[in-house]
Amino acid sequence: MDRIEGQIEERGHWGSKAEFLLAVAGNVIGLGNVWRFPYLCYKYGGGAFLIPYLVFVVTCGVPLFLLETSMGQYTQEGGITCWHRLCPLAEGIGYAGQLILLYSCMYYIVILSWALFYLISSFSSQLPWASCDNTWNTDDCVNLAAKNLTLNRTTLINSTPAATEFWERRVLSLSGGIEEIGRINWEILLCLIAMWVICYFCIWKGVKSTGKVVYFTATFPYVMLLVLLIRGLTLPGALQGIVFYLYPEPARLFDPQVWLEAGAQILFSYSVSVGTLTVLASYNKYNNNCYRDSLWLCVLNSCTSLVAGFAVFSVLGFMAQEQGIPIAEVAESGPGLAFIAYPQAVAMMPLPQLWAVCFFIMIILLGLDTQFVSMEAVTTSVMDLFPMILRREGRREIFILLFCLTCFLGQFIMVTEGGIYVFQLFDYYACNGACVLFLSVFESLVMGWIFGAERMFDIIEDMTKSRPNYIFMLCWKYLTPLVSVVSFVCSMVEYTPLTFNRWYVYPDWAYALGWLLALSSIVLVPGWALGQLFAGKGSLKQRWRHLCSPDPELPLTCKQRAEMKETTFTAEMEDLVRANID
């Protein structure tokens, strides 16, 4: 038996504090900071959008960020087993979070394959999205980057920009709908394979390899962002774009959709409620100051989003001025910004290949560490569930390889002609804000009331030697669950079915599939709790008490040790007094 146990590998720790900080920064600072936050800010009231954004930062983002990093550092466990040790009744939250991460791993890397294809295309003598002389172009194609081009509104309505045709007809080979899956796009498939190979070798040795890779993947995007920011601010029309980005519209604050979008952006941008932060913090040493780390990482995340907006809208302002049209007509979000609007703007600049290469390197690196850290979170959580089987020499590498192959085969359909429609289903339903909001409600309720916010405060104080601000206790017990519940209900009330390009309506079976993906994670939370209650032994009250009790093997805080000594001393004194009386 001793010989078998001796073969189990140590879980390990980060090589340095910098590795942890860079890994978390690389995970939480991703594509959403560049292509989602700036667009939301302009669309929902400019500078006024920062008010609901900051409200959600204070009530949900930072409190949950601190809570999850503290949970991981205290238990030294992954996203599932940490719940088993803190509150077995809530273990379904861990399973649900890992399922959402699994869905994310399956579709998020497709974006990186598109970006890699654009990066390779950027090395051509003429950018392929900057001309209408290619085999994929139609008679309606118009090259907006052409010099001395005279445009009017009628021309724009009746034509298709070259960048749009490159995206839809060359990269996606877009079919007529999800019913028409069509052929495999072999070039995108090869790019996808390349990205999976890179991600595999980034995490195959665990934190030993991840901790070294993030020194590059988490820092170099900032170099690219700075370069693009300086270039954008020096373009004509940049000021117009920035004013459009931040001009406040206070009236929009009365629109519930503005608050919903702000809440969803915070939850995704901060990567809370899905277990990623718990896993990353679990590789810290017990006495790391996770309280200070969490505050600074949250500040870095939000500041990056704000600065990225200047880089994006300065370029969109330039493009609008060059075309002589309002910025609202060129502003895009998501893939539309990264693969149509920005490449189109780059094509209008001097040295377009240089700026295209810089932009797509930044996009790839921003998404890369988000992808491989999510993979690390899932694999670590599963390995912590089965340490006797998976934590043996050579088995981690095999398990990660099988995980990559499973995700790759599952996403194969996304690189077909109808793949973008499946991609949108995953993005809109499987990983949507409502699922994460649902988890955040129960996470804060369980840790605030069942495990105990006061106990969590003692744990953080014991680990960091500093007691958190009292506002965090108020958030965990009241504000975070209240805000999350209201946002979840509103998101259900305000639900609108998914469409593609504002014209394609999915068939009913596709919507049913989307809801199945969304509910697959949500039902795990109550389903696990009810299953454990029914499967347990004893009375219902005994089962409830057992499932709400933390693992007695968890580390004791200084306060708990002092209380135990006092209890032991009191008991010994009582025994001594009783013995003397006898």
From TrEMBL:
It comes from the Eukaryota. The chain crosses the membrane at residues 20-38, 44-67, 100-120, 184-203, 223-247, 262-283, 295-320, 354-378, 398-423, 429-450, 470-489, 509-535. It is a multi-pass membrane protein. Na(+) binds at residues 26, 33, 269, 301, 366, 369. It is found in: Membrane. GO terms for molecular function: gamma-aminobutyric acid:sodium:chloride symporter activity; metal ion binding. Its main location: membrane. GO terms for cellular component: cell projection; plasma membrane. Disulfide bonds join 132-141. Belongs to the sodium:neurotransmitter symporter (SNF) (TC 2.A.22) family. This is Transporter. The lineage of its organism: Eukaryota, Metazoa, Chordata, Craniata, Vertebrata.
